[in-house]
Amino acid sequence: PADQSLNTNNQVVATVNGEEITSQQLAQQANVNQILQQVSQVDQQLAQILASSEAGSKVLEELQNAKLDSIIDNVLLKQAAEEADITLSQDEKDEIYQQQKNAILQQQQMDEEQFLSILEQQGYENEAAYKEEFSNNPQIKINKLIEEKVIANIEVSEEELQQAYDENKDALAQSGQDTSYEEIKPRLRQMLKQQQQSQAIQEYLDELREKAEIEKNI
């Protein structure tokens, strides 16, 4: 598999404004071996082709490059959060942690005792240790940066909603969904806002990349 060499030699695969990204970090993100194992459970022949053919190697190489770009983006956002001096109060950290915990309990359909048992299995001494690690995750500051600096002022206008409805009215009718503007407006607003937020984040990342010194070694 393509990531074996990355695991054995912890080389620098990229630098972002002087901050190094190692092959070990890339291997953890790309996780090619796990992907191949998952593919083999569905189609062993396809997994073999991916692992041993030239075409398969190109696919895995593209995957690694995509994952590396994702890591670079995250490093840029982390650096931007540091430059903007983004901080969180203890109350903010507590609220974010509780929201995340509640989401895990709901999604995994587990109770408090099961949650604590899983933390213990993962090597945490207690919930406080897990919470401290969670609260120190740079991703929390990145999320606040994006909320405050990138998407805070995004609002969908009535004109944009009406235009989206008019352009998709026939498709909505054919799919059997509600075609009344007032009935579908809340869903349209949410969809358009998500699209605009995604676009704003991508534009912000493009700006960070343009200003950054990025060197890729693979």
Description of the molecule:
With 218 residues, this protein is mainly α. The chain is 74% helix and 6% strand. It contains eleven helices and three strands. A three-stranded antiparallel sheet has the order 2-1-3. Helix 4 packs across helix 5.
Strand arrangement across the biggest beta sheet:
2-1-3
The total beta strand count reads 3
Shape: globular
Helix coverage percent: over 70%
Low-pLDDT sequence parts: 1-8
State mean pLDDT (0 to 100 scale). Answer: 89
* Sheet having the most strands: 3 strands, antiparallel
Write down the secondary-structure element order.
Answer: HEEHHHHHHHHHHE
- Percent strand equals 5-15%
Please, what is the oligomeric state?
single chain
* Terminal Cα span: 16 Å
Topology:
Layout: H1 4-8, E1 12-16, E2 19-22, H2 23-30, H3 32-42, H4 44-52, H5 54-83, H6 90-107, H7 112-121, H8 127-135, H9 138-150, H10 158-174, H11 181-211, E3 214-216
Antiparallel strand pairs: 1-2, 1-3
Helix pairs in contact: 2-5, 3-4, 4-5, 5-9, 10-11
Short description:
The chain is mainly alpha-helical and 218 residues long. 74% of the residues lie in helices and 6% in strands.
Summary tags:
218 residues; mainly alpha; 3-stranded antiparallel beta sheet; 11 helices; 3 strands; disordered N terminus
